[in-house]
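ok new one. same drill as before - structure tokens go in, u give me an amino acid for every spot. 307 of them this time. try not to just spam alanines like last time pls lmao
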């Protein structure tokens, strides 16, 4: 059965986000939907999978409501759910940054076509994701983000302002779906950058419109799939942890007390039974290795008795 995978966010003032959590839970409980939805005073950030009927019902419902009528959904087809359950919760911040954001200073959105034109003219690309996301796929020429967490972007913005001509250098920001650029672009504008632009819809929208053009590798995603192709023909840019050959898949270590995220080729992940190292292979709490579902580390599983 075909499912839709939805990625979306909408920045809007929500007077009572806790009430909105309850409203969302009541609606979603009626349909075959799974995902992660975070709601705050500043908006909603969601990833969801559902049957075609459920997806259409949810999108229609959202667009019928004044608060969310302008929400833009990026949609991919998939053969099953990509989340184990539905989680809808309040978060004081949609992205973990230890400061308030002045959204009046966020950079303007430009379409993928406009972004592409500036890219081909040699504009500077700023990847607002984490370094491990860059490892498996990125725009050609984009430097690896030195950001292990969202909170590291402030330091990165300081370094960028020291080495670029802030008055004249076009800066193209990109991330997976767009929300991090909304939050991080004001940091560049506050530091005096005059030509900062966001890729509208993020890399997901780029893939829907241009596939793998100017993009190498796969796109990291925060669901069961862990990575998706933006189109046909992209060469692998990741490196296997074990043999250092080209690889294009991330895995979570099967040792539940480790759960480390790492890149591996298929022969090596099978040889190591889904684990990141020999110590983990012999650990006590190791998820059974299933060749066809190694990207589902958080599904419930019955472990062997240790008694």
């Amino acid at each position: 059965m075909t499912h839709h995978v939805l990625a979306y966010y909408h920045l809007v003032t929500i007077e009572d986000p806790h009430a909105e959590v309850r409203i969302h839970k009541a609606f979603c409980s009626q349909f075959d939907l799974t995902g992660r939805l975070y709601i705050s005073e500043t908006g909603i950030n969601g990833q969801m999978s559902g049957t075609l009927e459920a997806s259409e019902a949810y999108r229609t419902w959202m667009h019928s409501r004044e608060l969310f009528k302008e929400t833009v959904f990026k949609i991919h087809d998939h053969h099953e759910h990509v989340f184990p359950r539905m989680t809808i919760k309040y978060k004081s911040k949609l992205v973990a940054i230890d400061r308030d954001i002045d959204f009046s200073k966020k950079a303007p959105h430009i379409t993928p076509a406009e972004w592409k034109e500036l890219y081909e003219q040699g504009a500077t690309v700023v990847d607002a994701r984490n370094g491990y996301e860059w490892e498996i796929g990125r725009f050609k020429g984009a430097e690896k983000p030195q950001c292990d967490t969202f909170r590291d972007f402030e330091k990165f913005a300081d370094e960028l302002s020291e080495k670029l001509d802030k008055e004249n250098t076009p800066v193209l920001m990109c991330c997976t779906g767009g929300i991090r650029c909304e939050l991080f672009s004001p940091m560049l504008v506050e530091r005096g950058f005059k030509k900062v632009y966001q890729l509208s819809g993020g890399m997901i929208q780029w893939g829907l419109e241009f596939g793998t053009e100017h993009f190498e590798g796969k796109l990291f995603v925060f669901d069961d799939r862990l990575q998706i192709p933006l189109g046909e023909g992209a060469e692998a840019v990741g490196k296997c942890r074990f043999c250092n050959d080209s690889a294009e898949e991330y895995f979570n270590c099967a040792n539940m007390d480790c759960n480390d995220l790492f890149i591996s080729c298929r022969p090596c992940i099978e040889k190591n039974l889904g684990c990141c190292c020999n110590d983990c292979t012999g650990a006590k709490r190791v998820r059974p290795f299933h060749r066809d579902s190694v990207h589902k580390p958080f599904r419930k599983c019955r472990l062997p008795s240790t008694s």
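The CA atoms of residues 153 and 159 lie 10 Å apart. and btw The first helix runs from residue 17 to 28.
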